User: Fold these one by one.
Assistant:
Number 1:
Amino acid sequence: MARADQLATHSSRPDGIERVYLSPEHRAVNHLAAGWMHEAGLVTWEDAAGNQCGRRAGATDELPAVLLGSHLDTVPGAGRYDGVLGVLVAIEVAARLRDAELPFALEVVAFGDEEGTRFGTTLLGSRALAGTWQPEWFELVDAAGIRLADAARAFGLDPVRFADAARTSDELLAYLEVHIEQGPKLEFADRALGVVTSIAAAERRVVTFTGEARHCATPWELRHDALVGASEGVLAIERIARSRGSFATVGRIHVEPDAVNVIPGLATFSLDLRDETADGRDATWDAIHHELQAIAGARGLDVAISSTHVAPEVVCSPSLQAAFSAGIGATSDVDSDAPLSLFSVAGHDAMAVAAVAPVGMLFVRCRGGVSHHADESVRESDVALAIDALEAAVLQFALTYSHDAAEPR
Ligand code: HGY
Ligand code: MN
Ligand code: MN
């Protein structure tokens, strides 16, 4: 808990936590995490994409690894546990297992960019590790117009070498991530921990309504107000997504010419749309898209839409779900009922790592389900249970892995 408080002091702003990819704050927390990884008995290195890594070899050095971890970057005005808790719990479990005989290597990773706060595209660190980095991402620019490639060089990385961060499926047996739930389900059920079944399918878009910028003296019947059209669209998005059990958020909106006495000629907003499945997400989008076009038509507006991020749902490996269930069962928090399983609406690095290894996630209760806010809070007793559960899950996985490995082919 003290380490989470210490990491929280590394922020680019005085009024809250903000720590973005390839920033001085990223450099500072990689250094802290490397020190703690070293204390846990791990050999440490920073990979070619700026992820902080640690490894404890297995019985022999070339064994594949079980990878534990999460991310250290944040959204603007973040809490101190999103991502951070998973990295610190992973380091603690590595320390506990430093002398354990394991049939695989144990690695810990602190990803440098899960949120996409600086460059807009998410999961950059974990997609570099998964080998799914896209070369066009080097051309992404931040709010100051700095290209990702230049930010990487300033951070001490070489864009040409980013591909060296990629790990193969031969090297990784599994990825296990502990994360705060960022929702209220565990608290409602009075549970400390929960097993993640799948991570929601997501798509991010930019929706732009175009009308006519005119004097605010323009009579009603002659107006083509882009902001009123966009506003009707935002309310339609809420109504349609809610009625279909999808999650839709308009987090940003921009208006032009953005003057008090001019009817907006342009209004452009972000849309983050998620659902348990890609089919559900796409069906909700079809209904929304139809309604946005109807609104534009009725108001004499144009509407343009672009997609900026798409991710299918990721199903957590059944064997890793079982390992986490066993892990929860081994903690002192064991309830008479089976551990709670739930799907994650929030996105996680596990979505990216799934391209190269089976993934499992363990959720930890957070107060009021609050996250992406300074009020983010966890109980120390729940964190203690999460460390016990992750340690037990790794040992459970080792048992089944050794057993399967011993099986005659
Ligand atoms: O967007 C998400 O769900 C995550 O916090 N990046
Ligand atoms: Mn987050
Ligand atoms: Mn997170």
Number 2:
Amino acid sequence: MIKLFRLLKQYTVQIAVVIVLLFIQVFSDLYLPTLMADIVDIGLVNKDVSYIIEIGGFMLLIAAGGTICAIFATYLSSQTAVGFGKLVREKLFTKVASFSLHEFDQLGTATLITRTTNDVTQVQQVSVLILSMMVTAPLTGIGGIVMALRQDTSLAWIIVVVIPILFGVIGAALFKGLPLFKVMQEKLDKLNLVLRENLTGIRVVRAFNRLDQEKLRFNDANADLMDNAIKINLIMAVLMPTMMLIMNLTTVALIWFGAIRIDNGDMQIGSLLAFIQYAMQILFSLLMLVMLFIMVPRAQVSAVRINEVLDTNLDIRDPEIPKQTEKEQGLVEFKNVSFRYPGADQPALLNINFCAKPGELTAIIGGTGSGKSTLVNLITRFYDVESGSVLVDGVDVREVTQQALRAKIGLVPQKTVLFSGSIADNIKYGKKDASLEEIEHVAHVAQATDFINEMKQGFDHSIAQGGTNISGGQKQRISIARALVRKPKIYIFDDSFSALDFKTDAKLRAALKPEISESTVFLIAQSVSTVRYADRIIVLDQGQISGVGTHKELLSTCKVYREIVASQLSEEELA
Ligand code: ADP
Ligand code: MG
């Protein structure tokens, strides 16, 4: 928590002002009962009207001053807390954005969302409380004791008796409540997880008639959260009235014993009234401390969760002194590359060696799970190699900035991701300042013009969140256009034609050819007809290269390739 609060540094001025304002407010609160005692014991007793008016007016002034200070203090501290929340969310977002895929896998999307929203809100709310109460509570408590003792010392024992009782009650509540607070956020995570899975997987849920089970799963998580919240509220429900009861009993005791002293002539009525008020102020300050003790651990849990994200060591970082590549041509070289997913026993790639030059089409073929996507993920540096090195333009990808590296790459991922916005926006994602002509051109190359023109708003047709309102093949083509508009040195098509029909596929590849002829092109595909004209075909089998060469060469040298071919092409095509 402390670490998080360091972020408050830029609000030092506001916080200082808040503290000063709160000081003034507390002092005015503490002074008022004494003045009131004077009015009663001096003014009323002597029937001195002008004294009463004078002191009364003074009281009004002080009260007004205190109130104004309180208003400003609350306003400023809320403003600070909200700004602080914004800052933390910003930090979180920036951090998460720089996560490697591995770190995403580790934490999970659901919890990252809760942490960025709900956890920050928890911390933010508490920071307002802490800001005001950390000053007000101790000051009122200590000041109250001093002022009370100035009125009368012999009633002080009542307060001395009450305080331990109060602490006992609070302690018991904390003992019961803390574990509940701790699990609250986890339960919220769980709920978010179930909800997210259901929302994104709604089609599967329906298709497999799992709605009832999913409802149960959601209800479980929901009820779990509710139970926990109810238990917490139950503790609160008992705690608050108990505190009030203790306070009221204190008042009764004070009046009882005070009356005896007044009867004996040892104390004046005004003094007793003031004493009662001070006693209340002291107990209220304790209550505030309790609130702090309840809220802080809750926020502490959230703060730890936030820090966990902020403190995550990034696997993939930019080098301190990034190298510049001399020639920007898109030369890709794998030197003895091995790679293993974190926690996996088997390497996903083993001793990969090859070189892909500009103007060449390198196809990668192999069964599912053979490591094709993994291989291209190393070029974009989504993961770092375990041993060996991946060189782009002669420089290890770990020695240039990720920004510089990825600027050279146009990736069409296996799983198409589009963003909400128009089709044009999505294509422009590849290049911010792409002109309308450029967009139309790449859409034409990607064979997307036909279906885009059929839409009423054409390029302005808005794509729903996750691209659910267009077909898989249409998404793939927009995704291809998005990569094309970058005019990158390196193209990576990861199974990017899988959702296209045969005719569109052929047309697209014909149109693509002149566009990408200068670049280094990687084409991952399942079908031999797609890869057979490649300059180089890399055959992957269980993470290892079992052959590199042209279609013809591989037919004579590579058994795995022959098997793939045999399973797809007819005898005459083989010849
Ligand atoms: P392909 O693209 O050839 O179908 P992948 O490169 O996606 O295959 O996967 C290669 C192997 O790595 C598979 O055995 C797969 O289970 C594993 N793998 C892929 N992604 C991950 C990941 N994020 N974490 C752990 N293992 C993974
Ligand atoms: Mg793949």
